[in-house]
Amino acid sequence: MPYNPAFLVNVAAFQAYLRERPKNLPPFEKDSDGNSILHTGERWCRVENCSSGHRLFADTGSLRVHVLKAHNKTMKLKEAPRKSRHTMEEEQEIIAWFMNIGKLPRLPLTKSNTVSVKAVKEHLKDRHLLYPCSACKAKNLTCPKTPFVCKYLERYFDVVADFDPPVDDNEDEDDYEDEDDEDEDNDQ
Q1: Are residues 116 and 29 in the same domain?
Q2: Which residues have a Cβ under 8 Å from the Cβ of 21 and sit 6 or more positions away?
Q3: Mean pLDDT, residues 66-79 taken together
């Protein structure tokens, strides 16, 4: 029978996490030594394109063994805590982590409210992604930093939180034409 930490058993976000693999699992956070952090209760592999990414591991220890064996060339894990209990503060941090799964981070901006290419590159590097993507490189585009043009920005950041989506002029015209057609029908 899988082990679930007692403080997580009644957390709705944790139960949802166990039922189905979240679509937007965040990249691993790093400790001060650059080691990836595996949170208590984690059961899905977060390594991008992992062949076991669809598998719910029995417990965090089993996931840890998988990561150490399957991904040891690309990453190092922070050592598992040796203590048997977490402090209340640690438990709250772990619960908050599960509650924030699936929420995309805000787009990093500079002081002048433009996209911080450096911060975007760092975030994507943590996910083992290159920026710009291969499609932009093929078009000889360098570091596209325009929301709603760059697909990486839309896929890995909450672009809508900081920018309004572009308005499609054709959609507006179609709406007005429909309204005009209705007015003509009423005149007859």
Answers
A1: no
A2: 44, 53, 54, 56
A3: 89
